[in-house]
Predict the 3D structure of the following.
Amino acid sequence: MRRPLRIIDAMLSAPGLPGFVEAAVRIGVQVGVRLGSTLLGVSPPRGRSRSRRGPDLFWPLAVLALAGAIGCSVGPYDMDQLEREHPALGAVSQHRLSDVTPYLLPAGGSVAFFLCRWPADAPIPVSLPPDASAEERRGLESVLRAWEGAGLGVRFTTAGVPGAGIEIRFIDPEAGATATAYAANTIADCAVAPEALAMQSANVLPAKLVFASIHLWRGGFDRLGRPDPHSQDEFIGSALHEFGHALGYQGHASVGRTIMVKETDATRWAARSVLKGEPFSDHTLRALYALPSGTVIKRVTIAAYRTDTVDRMAQYASERGLAGPFVRVGDLDGFLAWRGETGHPYVMQVRDVRKVLRDPDTLWVQVPLAVSELLDAD
Ligand SMILES: [Zn+2]
C-alpha cells in the first residue's frame, strides 16, 4: 500500500545549511563517534574526580527510570496560569500548545522553557526554492496565503533570499528512502538577547525567531526502488505542516485538529481544503501567536554546576562581543550557539529536551572539545 502513514520530519539532520547548522551537524558526528570518550558534559560536582565519560555516571539508572515514570503522568506546563498571565491565550480554544517542545535557556542555575515566534509587525521574508516548477511555486504560494489567513497576524514576502528569513529548499530523498512517509524537515532558530541569561524571574524573555529552513522532498521511492512522487495534496500538506515548525511550533501535537499532528490524514485533509481555496486556520499556531515571543512557560531551578558550561560560554561571548545565544530545538535535542565576527559558530548541545522538561536535573550540556578547551583556557 502506497499511502503515507506518518510525517517523518526529524529535525536537525540536514547538512550544508547556513548559520550554525553545519557546526551542529559536526557536533552530531562527534557525538556519534566520540560520545563517552572525549566530549565534555557538565562539570561534575566538586569533590568528584572529573569524568571524561559524560554525566551518565552521576545518575543512577533507578533515578532516571523513576523520573520517566513520573513524567508520563504529569503535564509539563500550567496552561491555566499561562492564560491568567496572557488573557489573549484564553480566547483561543481547543489548541494543543501543551504538546509543544519548548525552546530552552539553561543559565545561572535554572532552566527557562520558552516559546519563540516571528514578530508580526513586519512581513517575514520567504525564499522559494530556485528550482521550483511553476506549479510547485503556485502550491507554495497557496501555503503562504493559507498561513496569512490563519489569524496569526503574520505576513510574508517572497522577496527573501536563501540564508535569511524562511528559506524553502527541495532536497533529494536519501538513498533507499521509501514513500511510506512524507519526509521533510525544518529548523527554526530563535535569537535570544544576551541580557536574557540574567533574567531569572522574567515571564517573557527578549527572544524572537530569526531564521528557518524548510526542506521538502518531491517524493520517495516505492518498494521496488522506483521514484514515487508525492501527490499534490501530500506536497501541500507537508509544506503546511513544515511551515508550522518554521513559524515556531516545535514537536508535534499528540491529538487534535491541528496541522501539527504527525498523522498525514490531517495534513492531506487540510491541503485539499487549501487547494480548493477554503479558509485555513490552526488553533494551535494561533495559541502560539496569542502569546508574546519569548513567553516562559516553565522555569525550574537546578544544580548550578549543570548550567556552568553555558554560563562560562556566555561570559566568554560577552567579553568578545559574540552574537547569541541562538537556540534551536528538534524532536529530541536542543542546541545553543554563539557566532563570532567571522560567523564561526560555538555550539552546545542539550540532549533530549523533553526529558529535561520532565526532569530538569537530567540537563546535560555537551560542548565540542575545542570549545571546552577554549573555555578552560579563558
Ligand atoms: Zn513535523
Q: What stands out?
A: The chain has a mean pLDDT of 79.
